[in-house]
Amino acid sequence: MNRRRFLGTSLAAAGGAVLAGRGIARATAIPEGSLMQEALETPGAVPQAQIAAARFPEGFLWGTATAAFQVEGAWKEDGKGESIWDRFTHTPGKVKGGTTADVACDQYHLYAQDMALAKRLNQKSYRFSISWPRIQPTGTGAPNMKGIDHYSKFLDTMLEQGLRPFCTIYHWDLPQALEEKGGWPNRDLAGYYADYAGILAKHLGDRITIWAPFNMPWSVAYMGYGVGALAPCRANFDDFLKAAHTLALAQAQALRSIKAASSKATVGSAYGMCPAYPKTDSEADKAAAARYHAMNNVFFLEAAMKGSYPKAFVGEPPFDRMGVRPGDEKIMHAPLDWVGFHYYTRRIVSDASHAQTFSGGGFSGTEIEADPATGRDPYTRFRAEMPTEGPLTESGLEVWPRGMYDLVTQISREYDHPIIEITESGCGYLDAPYEKENGRVPDARRIEWFRQELAELSRAIADGARVRSFHAWSLIDNFEWGNGHTERYGLIYVDYRDQKRTIKDSGLWYGRVAATNRLV
Ligand code: IFM
């Protein structure tokens, strides 16, 4: 059977928690051959009438997100130590195109300009991360005051521009010295990390009220230690299990140390999530999709909210191999004030119980692809695929707006309607300044991507989800990890030769959305 038809059939048939695409709408007055018309005829597309009617509540926080390593550059300035990503990018052959992030977008020096641009786009929230090795060059000990001073000035600038500073404490750049002490599989890192978080809250907590301990902790553990797709590139299943447990302990210990140092602090998360749709309506596939959700989406959320891990494993959970000790439930338990997660794309999940072999795969931006031949690992035993029923972005992720609605409403239901922050969402397209149009960046595909995605977010809000913010990934094009500069996610184009910023058409459009709360 044709793959597209097969997926369509199996999805419609599957009866799990989140399923079924929305029909393709036809509207009048859409110009022939236009991108809008193309979108209408695309599987999974949102009806134009729904987009036109979409509204966001008064006071909704429109924002953008970045991460220190991806934008800052200045890799060894002002006493900064080496991070695992410095080591990775300085290793020949690791980064596509052979670039490094030594300069990246030079935001370390150009932050005032970038915050002014955010204001120009009517932004109200800026999610950024702090580089641990700028604060503690070897990961422990007294803070490097030059690092603190830098972020202090940066925060003042954000506030002057009317931006809410949303701080991610760790977005993947572990001090290399801590990797040499064993990295995240070493349980001691939970304590070092809580000290680091406490330092930040003590010195910067007068201006930061919203903290997310980790960006995508599952990826830190699995892609960094389980399959070696991200720095520090270790591929050992036990290391993955141990790293995951250390991260769960660290998340809770950090929450406590932040709150002890700053009475204004609220703590939540920035988890990477993909709605999981069972491949068929078999009980086995539905159970596999539930395991995917438990492992990839809510593993760390459950740990914080309930002090226990969700049912991600077939049979007895491998607590010994994870290094779980008696009393850890109490340590892990640290209910979050709000729940933050990203949405980029979805997964189709099937049972892989017959497959016992652990195997890796390729990195697709937010997710590791299971090896189709061998399945995933001996415990979770599911196979997760990114379907291609909808179109793919240039960065290779399927466009599936409905996934936003399904994920947001699912998390709302499962966690009793928490306050939700969408911490990242965006798409990779390579559009560049076009000379014939005075250097404009006409990135119509990105505009259409956000229109569709946001219409589905608005529908979730109308249906009761308490979403208070949306952070587009990203304010500016930046260094996309192992893919270097070969992918562009920004609303603002960066010319890496001279650091010139050009607001893309999508940026101008997003600015209007922020001003009107409509998808104009
Ligand atoms: O660039 C990354 C970011 O660091 C984490 N979330 C996904 C983005 C796009 O791949």
Automatic annotation (TrEMBL):
Keywords: Glycosidase, Hydrolase. One of its GO terms (biological process) is carbohydrate metabolic process. GO terms for molecular function: beta-glucosidase activity. InterPro entries: GH, GH_1_N_CS, Glyco_hydro_1, TAT_signal. Pfam families: Glyco_hydro_1 (PF00232). Residues 360-395 are annotated as: Disordered. It comes from the Bacteria. Belongs to the glycosyl hydrolase 1 family. This is Family 1 glycosylhydrolase. It comes from Telmatobacter sp. DSM 110680.
